[in-house]
Specification:
Number of domains: 2
CATH architecture of the largest domain: 3-Layer(aba) Sandwich
Order of helices and strands: HHHEEEHEEHHEEEEEHHEEEHEEHEHEHE
CATH superfamily of the largest domain: Zn peptidases
Mean pLDDT: 97
Low-confidence stretches: none
Radius of gyration: 23 Å
Structural class: alpha+beta
CATH class of the largest domain: Alpha Beta
Strand order of the largest sheet: 1-2-5-3-6-17-7-16
Helix content: 25-40%
Strand content: 25-35%
Number of strands: 18
Largest sheet: 8 strands, mixed
Length: 409
């Protein structure tokens, strides 16, 4: 049976998948600059004899790869699997397997995602006489940075069934039947997975506000228009955006994570910069909140004789998991792992550009438990001590292959 053949294949290659992850973890690269990562993926796929095309994401570096593995009846179903490859600008804590690139780290598990997809590709290739259909493997650059590599790959035709052969911009075939993506989750024990049908992750906008005042001497504030004080008032006023401009039944978040202005303690600067993020699920709500941010920031600044220039970059859409596909993936996960290892996920206000694929085809984005007792294995994503329990790589590899392939019986 396919299940036993797959599990045997995954078990036989577990050390290779671990080595994939460790190599990638040691060599992180920024969004849209994943050239060495892409070359490594291409080398592994080439050594396996798997068909693939390179050069995806042409407008932002061309590091993406789309591969294809065919089963017994290639036309029975076309399913895609996605892994992201970029890292974050975080300095990792000192440890034996830390990043070798100063200031950059795989703090969001993309090294594990890529390693699992390489492992799934190898397992599917070695068992291709045991399952039906065709599996497309999408190795994507630039998940962490707007506009998101997924949006570019969609435009270039990465979800077309002929994409692995024709390459970016030339695919003209029908779309794949669906796409599955996984993401590490330290809150779940290694060996577990989690699903949520329907709305799962929020849409993400970038909010930038430039407050212009009039600089001067700190001892003579009456001769200046202090943008630092105005900035404080603007931040406070904008706290009413969600509480008073949003339907309480609609999950929304507005947070400012960066304030920059001034150079020395005794000089009032001319301007202050605010950078934040707006998270929503509902497009009409997002439109209302964007308008409220413009209105409140501008009017508050004007009340103090200053100006507020608001620029909002519309980011990733909300991740909406297709109910039928997600239900099927959950059932398949129980078949593979057992019911006790499959959990229901809560709603999240984090974002993911996997949502761009879901605008084209049915998609399921699920979580891979990576929690463990070793240092960092329960630390949050995007932190300097984040790590994974590498036992999760076996689960992640098997899950991706199992969910994408159709059992031939």
């Amino acid at each position: 049976m396919f299940k036993s053949a797959l599990l045997s294949a995954v078990d036989s290659q577990r050390e290779r998948v671990v080595q994939h992850r460790r190599h990638l973890h040691s060599n992180p690269e920024p969004s849209f600059s994943e050239t060495r990562t892409g070359a490594y993926v291409a080398q592994v796929l080439g050594n396996l004899g798997i068909t693939f095309s390179e050069g995806w994401c042409q407008e932002r570096g061309a590091a993406g790869i789309v591969a294809r593995i065919e089963g017994k009846e290639p036309g029975a179903r076309h399913m895609a699997l996605r892994a992201d490859m970029d890292a974050l600008p975080i300095q990792e804590v000192e440890r034996s397997h830390a990043s070798q690139v100063p200031g950059w780290m795989h703090a969001c598990g993309h090294d594990a995602h890529t390693a699992c997809l390489l492992g799934a590709a190898e397992a599917l290739h070695s068992t291709r006489d045991q399952w039906n259909g065709t599996v497309h493997c999408v190795f994507q650059p630039g998940e962490e940075t707007i506009p998101g590599g997924a949006s570019i790959l969609v435009k270039e035709g990465a979800l077309r069934i002929d994409a692995p052969e024709t390459g970016p911009g030339t695919a003209r075939g029908p779309l794949v039947d669906g796409i599955v993506g996984q993401h590490v989750y330290p809150q779940l024990e290694a060996g577990s997975v989690g699903f949520r049908s329907g709305a799962y992750m929020a849409a993400t906008d970038e909010v930038n506000i430039l407050i212009r005042g009039k600089g001067g001497h700190a001892a003579l504030p009456h001769r200046a228009v202090d943008p630092v004080v105005v900035c404080a008032q603007v931040i406070s006023a904008l706290q009413t955006v969600v509480s008073r401009s949003c339907d309480p039944t609609q999950p929304s978040v507005l947070t400012f994570g960066k304030v920059a202005g001034g150079h020395v303690r005794n000089v009032i600067p001319n301007e202050v910069i605010l950078e934040g993020t707006l998270r929503t699920y509902d497009e009409p709500t997002a439109i209302d909140l964007r308008s409220a941010i413009h209105r409140i920031a501008s009017s508050t600044a004007a009340a103090f004789g200053a100006q507020a220039e608001v620029a909002i970059n519309i980011g990733y859409p909300a991740v909406i998991n297709a109910p039928e596909l997600t239900a099927s993936c959950r059932r398949r996960a129980i078949e593979l792992l057992g019911a006790e290892q499959v959990v229901e996920l809560p709603l999240r206000m984090t974002g993911e550009d996997f949502s761009f694929y879901q605008r084209e085809v049915n998609g399921c984005f699920y979580r891979l438990g990576t929690g463990g007792d070793a240092p960092g294995c329960r630390s949050g994503l995007h932190t300097s001590d984040f790590d994974i329990d590498e036992r999760a790589l076996v689960t992640g590899t098997a899950m991706m292959a199992w969910l994408a392939a159709t059992d031939a019986g």
